[in-house]
Amino acid sequence: MLRSPWISLLTFVLGIGFLSGCGSDDSAPPAENESSTTSETDPETPETPESPTTKSIKSNVKSLASASSLDLSYITDDFTSAVIVHPARVLSSSFVSELEKAGLPLEESMTEFIDQSGFDPRTIEQIVVLGDENSASAAAMQAPGLFGFGSGPPDQFDDVGPQLNGPDGFDGPAIPKEEKGPELPDQGNVSPQNQTLQPVNFQPGFGSADGPSGDGPEEMGPPPIPTVIVRFNEDVDPKTFFEDKPIPPLEDGEQDGLAVKIIPDLSMDVVIHFADSKTMIVTKSTLLKKMVETKTTNSPLISELKQIDSANDLIVVIDMTQLSPMLVGLGQMFGAGQDPNLAMGLKLVSELKILTITGGISSDSLLSVSLVGASAETVSSANNKLTELADMGRQQYEMMKPAALQQEAPVDEAGKKVLEAMADQIVSGITNKADGTRLTISIPKPADFNSLPEILKPAIEDAKKTAKRAVQMNELKQLGLAFHNYDAVYNGLPAAGSNHKGEKKGLSWRVHLLPYIEQAPLYNQFHLDEPWDSEHNKALISQMPEVFKTPEVTEDGKTAFHVIVGENTAFNMEKGLRFRDFTDGLSNTIMVVQAGAGKADVWTKPGGLTLDEENPIKTFGTIDNGKFLVLLGDGSVRALDLDTVSQETIKALITRNGGEIVGEF
Fold it and tell me: In the prediction, which pLDDT does 519 show?
């Protein structure tokens, strides 16, 4: 399967674009005579005193003539869109450094990206992603399908009105009314002692891509792969560059006299060529020769790129000639033409020729968006309407601000005041300007922008905890599926304190679930007829799968994911129960709990937590922040808060057959 660095690379481009925040060193809108006033102004009219933000935007525009131009090598007139980012520059900026100091796990993300793609972003000076007319056509053909309308060329949308409801109403793609789970093998009382078990292939969701009948919609094929130009900030050796990359082995080849790397068994005609020791091109074989040999060329895309300063961290330019009809069609589908405010925007879109977005993290402008239309009249009308809407937006902002300031946020009072000032500066400083056929919208960077990392430090910590909890919830869901697959094979759940023969010297239930969490090879290494702490089995403790890892537990081989054992709980020490024994209902019975770190134990050790009848909450140990996760018998995962869940509810959830009525929790 071609996960390939190219897919990772495109994902990374989007990430860098987001990180850039839009605005950059000496960011310059393309129009040389742009003004930062909110509407077109007669040059003879005396101007009011300019704010520092207005002056800085004008300064950026005037510096365009002396700005550093982009390297447009290898970009030919075949391409109609370009996304350009500068990873090394962004990642080495002081702003990103401060974000990392504030607790954003950038190093972890960097390591993960390198592991997945084989590329170190800090060695990449520039990434250029280019799309051609086929890419635009594919977008026009496939985008409507995302909204449940099927697909077709843009001109099929012209007669489509605002009616969104089909026979069953518009709720996106149809969902089968009946779904059957996968056929599970009838293995009776199979003993795994001397067998190699494989995980039951079960995937949650709505079934296969072909639909429940297998007849599914007509295949549209994969979207065209864009051309990618990667410029490194250090020399690379084409002969050894791919040796440590997580991709299928590449074959050496030749295309029109040029040395290339070929990805074998790839249906798409893609080659990789090193134009020099710092430049790698990934493109269709039919485009490579022209890209390498063309010295000067011109096109709407290239003409626009020539006007842009290379200091921008993020640059997006799109020739909208083909995409505009599709966007108009989608607007008609959603009834945009019936709204007077949107009708003008729809007219502008219908005439749109070029869309440009520039930005970065070091300039006075967070974001600059430029739209080139077909007529100055339409652009001027759209600009006037935009000015009206901007004024209305500012009024609504002032009305909503008091209520927004009362909302709780993981930021201290001083930080809230700074954020409020920033928001005020952004809202008041947004500008739009019509200059002939070009409409430019600019969003300024507030004065205290560089202090954001420190202000957001509490919010970043809160987000990290939320992200960790999401990972834990997903892992518990995997265990829920594993329990159900295990029950389907063995007609029962694993016992908490014995092996498959009922012998007390067995291994943990976690070990018996290994074949059902894609860990069959590890499972087959265990000696199931030996205790968990035998010399052989102890050697496997260090290989605990990621799914069992829990926050705050730092000791290798230990986990805080536990079952609860007892007479009326979901697990018995010596005998595995059946789901039919859960007479309280699967959705009302705890299977696994994420206990406090103090309750962590070796993951292969049999047993579980013993219910404290007098104080059920003590069963789980000391819970960080009073919140913990539980896996219920139906496979769902819930986050429980000890401040809101009563002792009675906890006890009722722990028992499988107590007959209690469990309310909301």
Answer: 92
Higher pLDDT, 489 or 211: 489
Residue with tokens 């089968």, as numbered in its chain: 176
> Is 189 inside any structural domain?
no
**Token pair 């990103």 is at which residue?**
96
Note whether 554 and 448 are same-domain residues: no
Torsion-angle region of 345 (φ positive above 0: left; ψ -120 to 50: alpha; else: beta): alpha
Sheet order of strands, 637-641 included: 561-562, 590-594, 627-632, 637-641
Tell me how far apart the alpha carbons of residues 127 and 279 are, in angstroms, rounded to a whole number.
Answer: 10
Residue 306 and residue 387 in one domain: yes
8 Å CB contact between 425 and 374? no
Mean pLDDT estimate for the chain: 75
| Same domain for 337 and 247 | yes
User: How many Å apart are CA 202 and CA 97, to the nearest integer?
Assistant: 43
- What are the residues whose beta carbons fall under 8 Å from the beta carbon of 218, sequence distance 6 or more? none
What is the predicted pLDDT for the residue at 521? 94
Handedness of CA 457, 460, 466, 467 (dihedral sign): negative
Buried b / exposed e over 147-179, threshold 16 CB at 10 Å, is eebeeeebeebeebeeeeeeeeeeeeeeeeeee
The band of 479, judged by pLDDT with boundaries at 50, 70 and 90, is: very high
Q: What is the pLDDT of residues 145-159, one digit of tens each?
A: 544 444 444 343 333
Q: Of 168-172, 223-227, 494-498, which range is least confident?
A: 168-172
Q: For 428-455, what is each residue's pLDDT tens digit?
A: 999 999 999 999 999 988 888 888 888 8
**Structure-token match 């842009």, residue found:** 308
Tokens of 597: 């770190």
Q: How many residues does the chain have?
A: 665
**pLDDT tens digits, one per residue of 249-286:** 888 999 999 999 987 766 668 899 999 999 999 999 99
Closest residue by Cα to residue 356 from 70, 8, 11, 124 = 70
Query: Considering its fold, how many domains does the chain have in total?
Result: 2
499 phi, psi to nearest 5 deg:
-90, -170
Domain boundary among 455, 486, 518: 455
Identity (one letter) of the amino acid at 203? Answer: Q
Q: Confirm if 365 and 444 have CB atoms less than 8 A apart.
A: yes
- Residues 582, 656: contact at Cβ < 8 Å? yes
Task: Summarize the chain as % helix, strand, coil (round to 5).
Answer: 40, 15, 45
Please name the amino acid found at residue 289.
K
Q: What is the largest CA-CA distance in the chain?
A: 96
Beta carbons within 8 Å of 634's beta carbon, 6+ residues apart: 480, 586, 587
Instruction: Read off the pTM.
Output: 0.61
Q: Are residues 448 and 473 in the same domain?
A: no
Cα 28 from Cα 443, distance rounded (Å): 12
Domain of 530 in residue numbering reads as 468-654
Distance CA 114, CA 106 (A): 12
56, 125 Cβ separation under 8 angstroms: no
pLDDT of amino acid 39: 39
Tokens standing for residue 417 = 């005041």
Give, as one character, the DSSP assignment of residue 498: S
